[in-house]
Structures are given as C-alpha cells and as structure tokens.
Specification:
Number of strands: 11
Shape: globular
Number of helices: 14
CATH class of the largest domain: Alpha Beta
Structural class: alpha/beta
Helix content: 40-55%
Largest sheet: 8 strands, parallel
Order of helices and strands: HEHEHEHEHEHEEHEHEHHEEHHHH
Strand order of the largest sheet: 1-9-8-6-5-4-3-2
Amino acid sequence: MNVINQLFNIKYPIIQGGMIWCSGWELASAVSNAGGLGLIGSGSMYPEVLRMHIKKCQQATNKPFGVNVPLLYPNIEEHIKIIVEEGVKIVFTSAGNPKTWTNYLKDQGITVVHVVSNVKFALKCQEAGVDAIVAEGFEAGGHNGREETTTLVLIPQVKKAIAIPLIAAGGIASGQAMAAAMALGAVGVQVGSRFVATQESSAHLNFKNAVVSAKEGDTQLSLKQLTPVRLIKNEFFNQVLALEHKAASIEELTQLLGKGRAKKGMFEGDMTEGELEIGQISSDINAIVTAKEVIDQMITEYNTTIDLMSKSKL
C-alpha cells in the first residue's frame, strides 16, 4: 500500500487543498467519502465556525479528514484547542514556523503535515518532526513561494533533501499530472484548484464559473511585496498591477488590499473588486462536477497513464 494511504488511512493518495472560502465541511466530507483526504480550510473561519464545520464533517463522513491551519492566523491558539477538543486526527499547517505547534499536536496523537515552497523550509519541517511535507510549486493558486520554483523543479529537489513522505502540489488536476508527480518522487498529491470548481465547494458560483472560463495566461502572481499570491486578472488585479508599476510602497499596497478582499471575491462572488485566488491549471478546468467525479477521473487517468508508460520503454 502507498505510504500516504497508510499514513492517513485513505484509499487514494489524493489530498484536497484546505483553501480559504472554498473548503468547508461539504467539500471535505465529499472528498473523504470518495477515497481521498478532505481538508477543512480554517484560515477563513472564526473559531466557533471551525468547530461547527468539524462537527458537520464528522456527521457527513466516517472516513478520515483533516484541518488546514495557517500558522499566522490571529486566533491560532483557539483553532488548535478546538481541533484537539473535537478529536481531529490530521492537521496540515502552512504559512509559519512548523516548530511552533508540531510537537504539541503530535503529543495529542495528531498526524502533522506542513506545506513548503522550497528545500530550505522542507528541511526545517523535517527537523521539526512533521510526518510528511507538501511541496507546492509556483503554478499553485493562492499564496506562493517567493522563489517562483515550478512543481517540476521543486519536487525532485525536495525529494533528494528529505527522508519523510513527500506530497506534490501546484498545477495538479489530472491523473497524468499525478503520475508525473509520482515519477518525480512524490508519494501523493494535493489538489486545490480542481476542487474549487466542484458542486460541494463553498466558493461562490460566480467564482466557480470564472475558474471554468479561465484561459491560458488569465492568472498571474501578484502582491510580491506583501505575500505573493496567484490571482485571476480582474479590475482589482489591474489596480494592484498599476500600483506595482509605479513602485508603490508596502503601505499603499496594504491599503488597496484592505480587509475581506478574498472573501468578497471567492465567497461573495464580486468578480470585479474581489481577490480571486486560483492556480494556473484553471485554464484546463472546463466544468463544475462533483468531488467524487474529480477523484474517479484522476484515478482512471493515472492508471491509464501508468499502463501506457510501462509499454513505452525506450
């Protein structure tokens, strides 16, 4: 059995990204019920909202699921407390120092995975004692690494540096991409953008339709002076671009970003002034389907790809 299947007790080594405003209990439970690992994205939730999503997910599935926790979240202590109280057994951490909470979580019997974008932080994660690492390439949606290293380059570099299980992320929405990631040394994949455009995603329908309509070149890394984030190009993106072209200060960019910009776009459906975080692979997503259909198609494509490759020896 695949090491990731064993680590999480899941059927397929496919992990759903814990994306803010898109990854509620409905998506997480649907992914888990379909044989993957669903994650609740806690970064956009007040503590008691997170508790509600955990409870509803527990009612909707008897399969393993986890919670994604951005470590820079202001109510991190409350989130961790709720995760422990509600008996969640898998936590994916990101956007912070893994040493801060890894030992505590593991002492509670929780499996811990941390998301990184370079080799340096992968080594820090291994030193901190995490159970596995997600290495996320530059193609990914949402917040990204400053190095702008692509998944194709990042995965083999991280694989050479660490001795713990490696999960690939960034630009993965098909079984072919999953096979490629496995060939590079990953033992599982994390999929974000493809799950945004599913029926169970909590994203606004306007945003889902924007993802389905996206073409090549419609996303770009932006806000590099703050925290790099990949966005669909819209009026808000154009405003950011104009400020960046005139070498605006961090204060000016922060003022433009304001508060609630991602919620406005992804959750409330404002396609003009909202922050629309999605990956480059959105240009290859053409329909809103169920989470189960995503996983079933990926597994079929993966097996077909492996069979074809085994018959194509040089």
